[in-house]
Amino acid sequence: MNLNATLFAQMIVFFVLWWVVARFVWPPLVKALDERSAKIAEGLAAAQRGKEELALANNEVELELSKARQEGAQRVAEAEKRAQMSADEIRSNAQADAARIIAQAKQDADQQVTRAREALRTEVAVLAVKGAEQILRREVDAKTHGALLDQLKAEL
């Protein structure tokens, strides 16, 4: 065996093997690597777009939340204002009713005082006539009696 022949045979096998690998194995391998690289790049781009969309969505959510908070605060303020107005209206109605009831009570009291005075005048007149009758020991006629009572009422 000759070392040169062995070296020459190994070189021929190497180049044949190199040609087979370069022709049949290498292109599918490079194609698979390129496809994987493209998928990874596409995935990274999609992830970046997703991050950007997430950031935009978060900003929109924050804006909507702030609007909702402002609207809620405004509604609460309006409700408090309406409640205050309602309370004021109820208070004024109650005061008006109280004033009306007090006026009615005063009017009723005045009427009762007037009736009591009239009743007292009548009783005093009757008592005065009875007292005078007893003093005089005689009966006064009805006309005179009525006239005396009317005069006594007027004086009292």
From TrEMBL:
CDD domains: ATP-synt_Fo_b. Belongs to the ATPase B chain family. This is ATP synthase subunit b. GO terms for molecular function: proton-transporting ATP synthase activity, rotational mechanism; proton-transporting ATPase activity, rotational mechanism. Component of the F(0) channel, it forms part of the peripheral stalk, linking F(1) to F(0). The b'-subunit is a diverged and duplicated form of b found in plants and photosynthetic bacteria. It comes from the Bacteria. Its main location: membrane. Keywords: ATP synthesis, Cell membrane, CF(0), Coiled coil, Hydrogen ion transport, Ion transport, Membrane, Transmembrane, Transmembrane helix, Transport. The keyword Iron does not apply. It is a single-pass membrane protein. The chain crosses the membrane at residues 6-26. The keyword Membrane applies. Pfam families: ATP-synt_B. It is found in: Cell membrane; Endomembrane system. F-type ATPases have 2 components, F(1) - the catalytic core - and F(0) - the membrane proton channel. F(1) has five subunits: alpha(3), beta(3), gamma(1), delta(1), epsilon(1). F(0) has three main subunits: a(1), b(2) and c(10-14). The alpha and beta chains form an alternating ring which encloses part of the gamma chain. F(1) is attached to F(0) by a central stalk formed by the gamma and epsilon chains, while a peripheral stalk is formed by the delta and b chains. SUPFAM superfamilies: F1F0 ATP synthase subunit B, membrane domain. Residues 44-71 form a coiled coil. PANTHER family: ATP SYNTHASE SUBUNIT B (PTHR33445:SF1), ATP SYNTHASE SUBUNIT B', CHLOROPLASTIC (PTHR33445). One of its GO terms (cellular component) is proton-transporting ATP synthase complex.
